[in-house]
Write a structure and sequence with these properties.
Blueprint (H helix, E strand, L loop, with lengths): L24 E4 L5 E4 L1 H13 L3 E4 L1 H4 L12
Antiparallel strand pairs: 1-2, 1-3
The structure holds zinc ion.
């Protein structure tokens, strides 16, 4: 029985609150609310959200399918 809210990863069913696109960022507000943003709106609102002391969880990398170990020497 675990009552702690583990940070669930975003899925394809999570949608941006602003435009309905697939959500890539989860924002936890100080008051306990939660917002989901696509990459575009996440970036757009990030300054204001940080100013409001919100917690921003960027899962862009996890959703784009980027391999955990990026090949080096390909610059
Ligand atoms: Zn959006």
């Amino acid at each position: 029985m675990t009552s702690t809210a583990a940070p669930a990863h975003l899925t394809a069913s999570d949608r941006c609150d602003r435009c309905g696109a697939r959500a890539y960022l989860r924002v936890v507000l100080p008051g306990g609310g939660e917002l989901l943003f696509c990459a575009h709106h996440g970036r757009a609102h990030e300054p204001a959200l940080r100013a409001a002391d919100a917690e921003i969880l960027d899962e862009t990398a996890a959703l784009t399918g980027t391999p955990p170990t990026a090949p080096e020497g390909e610059r």
